[in-house]
Amino acid sequence: MRSKTKQKMAKKEAKKLEYFTDWKYAPSPEATDHIRLQKQYELFINGKFVKPNSGKYFDTINPATEEKISSIAEANDKDVDTAVKAARGAYDKTWSKMPAKERAKYIYRIARLIQERARELSVIETMDGGKSIRESRDIDVPLAANHFFYYAGWADKLEYAFPNRHPKSLGVAGQVIPWNFPLLMAAWKIAPALATGNTVVLKPAETTSLTALKLAEIIQESGLPDGVVNIITGHGPVGASMVNHKDINKIAFTGSTNVGKWIQKAIAGTDKKLTLELGGKAANIIFEDAPINQAVEGIVNGIFFNQGHVCCAGSRLFVQESVADEVIRKLKDRLETLIVGDPLDKNTDIGAINSKMQLNKINEYLKIGVNDGAEMYQSSCSIPKKGFFVRPTLFLNTSQSHRISQEEIFGPVLAVQTFRTIEEVIEKANNIPYGLSAGVWTDKGSRIFNMTSKLRAGVVWANTYNKFDPTSPFGGYKESGFGREGGLHGLMPYLKF
Ligand code: ADP
C-alpha cells in the first residue's frame, strides 16, 4: 500500500517536471520598426560623415538571419591620416585649451543622449552582433552611458585624482575595439580619453560597426567640437595603419592575443603609450560549502548567457570533488532549460554567434575536445536552421593538458574539472597563459581573501560573476594584456605626469 502511494507520487512529480520542461514561451521579439538604418555608412571624420578614399564598402550582416543590414565604408591609409590630422587639429586648437569643466559637459551630454536612444541602440547592437536583446538592453547600453557619466565627473578633478602630480593629456589616442561589446568598448575607450583631455580616432570591429556609427551621430548631436572624436571603419589593416601612424600618442587595443602581440612589436622603440586587453580563460571555482544553486546560476551566467563572447567568460569550471555530482547534475538540468534562438526575443538566453568564422572556430574546438578524449554534453534544444548558432556545451572529464582547457574558445563551451584541495585548484587555475578574471564560490570570507591574493587574474569575483561597474578597474595579467580600464586607474593610461 505504502509503495503504491509512493509510485503514485513519483508519477505525479514526473508529470509536473514534464510540464515545466515542455512548457514553451510564446515568442516575444523586440520591435524593429522604429529602427532607422541607412543603406550605406560613411566614415566619421572631423565632425562629418565622409566617403572613404578607397571608394570601397563592405557588408555588415545580421548573424541570426545571415541577411545584409547595411554597407560600411572601408578606410585606407589616407583616411587614417585624415582622421589623425583632424584629431590633432582639434587637440591643438580646441580640446586641450578648453577648461576641463566645459569638456565635462560634452561628455555628460553624450551619456544623456545614449540614455535617450537606449532602445534603438540595444536593438541595433543585437541585430548587428547577434547577442541577446536582454544582454544589450540590460548590460551593454546602460553601462556605456554610465561610463560617460562616470568619466564626465573626473574631467575637472584630475588634480584630486593624482594630487601633486600635475597630470597632462597625451594628445591623440588611437583606439581599436572588438566585436563582443561594440558600443560598450567604444565607451570604455572614448570616455576616459576625453575626460583626460585627449582627442580620439576609434576603429570598431568589422562585423559590428553600426553602434559605433550611431555613437558618431550622437557625438555630432552633442555638439562636441569637430575632430575631437573620429570614427573610422574597416578591417584589420585599418587598425594596423593606426598603430603605425607617426602622429598618434597612445594606442588602446582590445582584441585577440595574437594581434596584441603584433601591436606591441610594431610600436616597440616609439614613444607611443599602450594598453592591451586581450584574451582570457577564466576559472570559476566552486567549493563544497558554496550555495550550490546560486553557484550553478553564476556559472551559467558566466559562460552561456553571453554566447561565451566575453574575454572574461568563466570558460573553465573547477568543482570540489565532494559536490561534483550534484553540481554537474544541476548544470545539465539548467542547460536543458536555456533558450537558444532569435536574439531579438526577450526570452532568449543564448543568441547568435557573431560570425560564420567564429562559429567555425567553436565547432572546430568541439571536435578537438572530443578527439582529445573529453566527454561532451550538449543541451538537446533545437537551434534555428538559418544563422550562426551553437548549443550550450559542457566538456566533462577534462584535464589540464586538453586544448579546450587551455585555449580561448569564445563560445558557449564550458570545460569542467574537479579538485580536492585549495593548493591544487590554485595551481590548476593559474596554469594557463592568460590571467584576466576568475570566480570563487564559497561560504567563507577568509577563503575568498586567500584565493583572491593567489589567483593571477586581474578581476576575481566572489559568489557572483561578470559584474561590471564604471568605478572598478578591469584588465589582465600575463597574455591577457596590461593596463587598466575603468575607475580611477582607467585615467592613468591617458595621462603623463
Ligand atoms: P577577434 O579575433 O576577436 O576578432 P581581433 O584581434 O582580430 O580579434 O580584432 C579585434 C580588433 O582588432 C578589430 O577591430 C580588428 O579589425 C582589429 N585588428 C585586426 N588585426 C589588426 C592589426 N594587425 N592591427 C590592428 N588592429 C587589428
CATH fold-level name of the largest domain:
Aldehyde Dehydrogenase, Chain A, domain 1
As for the number of domains, it is: 2
Gyration radius, to the nearest Å?
A: 24 Å
Which parts are unreliable, with pLDDT below 50 for 5 consecutive residues or more? none
CATH architecture of the largest domain: 3-Layer(aba) Sandwich
The chain-level mean pLDDT equals 95
Taking the alpha carbons of the first and last residues, their distance comes to 84 Å
Strand order of the largest sheet: 14-15-16-13-12-18-19
Helices, by number, come to 16
How large a portion of the residues is in β-strands, by DSSP E? 15-25%
Q: What form results from the Cα inertia axes?
A: globular
Structural class: alpha/beta
Quick one: CATH class of the largest domain? Alpha Beta
Largest sheet: 7 strands, mixed
Percent helix: 40-55%
Number of strands: 22
Fourth-tier CATH superfamily name of the largest domain:
Aldehyde Dehydrogenase, Chain A, domain 1
Bound molecules: adenosine-5'-diphosphate
Structure description:
- This protein has helices at 2-22, 77-95, 100-116, 118-129, 133-154, 158-161, 182-195, 210-222, 236-244, 257-267, 292-303, 321-337, 356-371, 403-406, 422-430, 445-454; strands at residues 40-41, 43-45, 48-50, 57-62, 67-73, 168-169, 172-176, 199-203, 229-231, 250-254, 273-277, 283-286, 316-320, 375-378, 393-396, 413-419, 434-435, 437-441, 459-462, 477-478, 481-482, 495-496.
- The strands form 6 sheets. The protein has a 7-stranded mixed beta sheet with strand order 14-15-16-13-12-18-19, sandwiched between helices. The protein has a 6-stranded mixed beta sheet with strand order 9-8-7-10-11-21, sandwiched between helices.
- The longest helix has 22 residues, at 133-154.
- Helix 3 (100-116) packs antiparallel against helix 5 (133-154), helix 4 (118-129) packs across helix 5 and helix 11 crosses helix 12.
- With 497 residues, the protein is an alpha/beta fold.
- The protein is 42% helix and 18% strand.
- It is globular and about 85 Å long.
- The chain contains 16 helices and 22 strands.
- Helix 7 (182-195) links the parallel strand 7 and strand 8 (199-203).
- The model has no long low-confidence stretch (mean pLDDT 95).
- It has 2 domains: 40-278 and 480-496, Aldehyde Dehydrogenase, Chain A, domain 1 (3-Layer(aba) Sandwich); 280-462, Aldehyde Dehydrogenase, Chain A, domain 2, CATH 3.40.309.
- The site of adenosine-5'-diphosphate has 16 residues, from helix 9 and helix 10.
